Amino acid sequence: MNHLNNSSNHAQQGRQSQNPQRLSLINITKEYPGCIANDKITMSLAAGEIHALLGENGAGKSTLVKSIYGVVAPDQGDIFWDGRKVIIKSPSVARDLGIGMVFQHFSLFETLTVSENIELCLSKKQLTSIPDLSDKIRQLSRQYGLDIDPDRHVHSLSIGERQRVEIMRCLVQSVKLLILDEPTSVLTPQEVTNLFTVLRQLAAEGCSILFISHKLHEVTELCHHATILRGGKVIATCEPKNETSASIAKMMVGELAEQTAGYAKKQGTDTVFSVNNLSLSPLQPFGTTLKQINFQLQAGEILGIAGVAGNGQDELMSVLSGEDNRSKAETICLENQNIGRFSAGKRRKMGLAYVPEERLGRGAVPEMSLTENTLLTHSEGFVQQGLVQWKKLKDYTSQLITQYSVKCHGERSEAQSLSGGNLQKFIMGREIGQAPKVLICAHPTWGVDVGAALSIHQALLTLRDQGAAILLVSEDIDELFLLADRMAAVCDGYLSPVVQTDNTNINEIGQWMAGTFIDEEQSTMIDTSSTSPTPSQHSKKETQA
């Protein structure tokens, strides 16, 4: 399928003839040792256009937007801004031009207020042009429906509110081009809807938006035009409204297995893992207290837990994996044995495997080879009488690389040399290779491209069908509906009721992620905005409806 066709080009030219070019990139090239990240990329954005930049991990998206924002300097090529050739030497130069960027990982200071965080990114010239920054924030907040209080401290904000602060930083600077990197990965469905409303309003006022996302249904819903990269090159362009998620994915990865019907749901059998009235204060100053968490995990099922980041997922994963073993022994049971005080290593020996959210540093040691990283969790199978069986270990690591299609230079490759998606495939393969009784998996495809995500999904389903019990924590609600047999949501340290996936919907789970749900055991309404249960007028039957 070739989408660099005349009809697509004519449509784009028609839109651009109405709106002047805001940004033009001509033959942008950036080369790193052993890798051409961007290979003569040419693309443009018109004023008021919402433009998607798509591609697999390692396709060159991050390098390209960093060139636009002045984080890296291209080796070759030209950048034109409002028809004028420019050299963007730094982010401050980009901001002065009117280019703003919201990164996937927010860069806010927790102990400062919203207004103080925004002030830090403004130049002296910008500050002198704003008589009262707090009033400016309130005015823009009303104009765009962002609901931001300039006097609140960042540590008191939800993830969705923090993202709005990042967008406000750009609006205060009168941004003409807004770059968004995976902006919906940490939002509830309701927050995504609100974000899209803001983006459409900005575009209608002439602001250009460069939108990076792996959620292709959002691209077809929101974007006017898309550029697809593969191997550092532009391989296709299209108008997303004329495409489907599957057709765009095929352009990105070459070929994609059909999954339009989803995956079959399964009914679990015996309970192998349970959490019983788990309440625990956080180790970190701005962590979330876990409050009366109860659930059972059955063999041969995937239990999905949804939630916006910062609502207790990290604390829960740390307690379940054994990294934090301060809970009472009886609060966590594996095959009827109380393990709440067991170390992570002891839990692994009992058949519990863990894929953490943080790949480098917790999932793998960056400077170690893939072989050495395999040894960290497979020592029993490859150590005899205190000696490492290196040949056996290397052969096994090579087998994992082949089985999970990990793109690397072999088993000697350092973990830090792999792309995020390939490292995630390796870590998933390493943990699944232990044939665990229980797999706890946090955000398995976060920031991972379509092809790698499909491979990871298939591996999880195969493990489930072999009888393992899988706990899947993800901020991607679509992924949970695709994979999970049962679902729940966590908010402010509380866990919602657990329901069959087929018996709920995205709006209900979205509400639970936002903090309103029924505690079926106590017949009370949990409203995390007040962090205390209040009497409910709803019955269990109404909750399950």
Provide the number of structural domains.
Answer: 3
Q: Rounded to an integer, what's the Rg over CA atoms?
A: 24 Å
Number of helices, where a helix is a run of at least 4 consecutive DSSP H or I residues:
19
Task: Quickly give the structural class.
Answer: alpha/beta
How much helicity do the residues have? 25-40%
Number of beta-strand segments: 26
Structural commentary:
Helix content is 35%, strand content 25%. With 545 residues, the chain is of the alpha/beta class. It has three domains: 47-73 and 87-252, 3-Layer(aba) Sandwich (Rossmann fold); 261-351 and 436-545, 3-Layer(aba) Sandwich (Rossmann fold); 360-435, no CATH class. Strands 13, 16, 19, 20, 21, 22 and 23 form a seven-stranded mixed sheet that branches. Helix 4 (114-120) crosses helix 7 (159-172) and helix 15 (420-432) packs parallel to helix 16 (450-465). The two termini are 44 Å apart.
